[in-house]
Write a structure and sequence with these properties.
Blueprint lengths: L3 E7 L2 E7 L14 H15 L5 H5 L16
Antiparallel strand pairs: 1-2
């Protein structure tokens, strides 16, 4: 069982160490970062199985930005 999760610099999450139990609930106001925590966990899981593509992530409800929108070398 995963006991802790560390998230740094992901969307609105600057630095978070989240201690987990056998059942976890995220409660907070709108816009406080609950979904960002879940997306960070999903990205970590997808990365672990080399599935960082729009089809895989999108089918799991993870919001991604198409690569054509990114500006490289700035």
């Amino acid at each position: 069982m995963i006991k802790t999760i560390s998230i740094k610099n992901f969307k609105s999450v600057v630095d978070l160490l989240l201690e987990l139990g056998s059942f976890n609930v995220l409660i907070g106001e709108n816009g406080c970062g609950k979904s960002n925590i879940l997306e960070a966990i999903a990205f970590g899981a997808a990365s672990n199985v080399d599935k960082l593509n729009h089809e895989f992530l999108g089918s799991r409800g993870i919001r991604t930005t198409p690569i054509r929108i990114y500006v490289f070398g700035v």
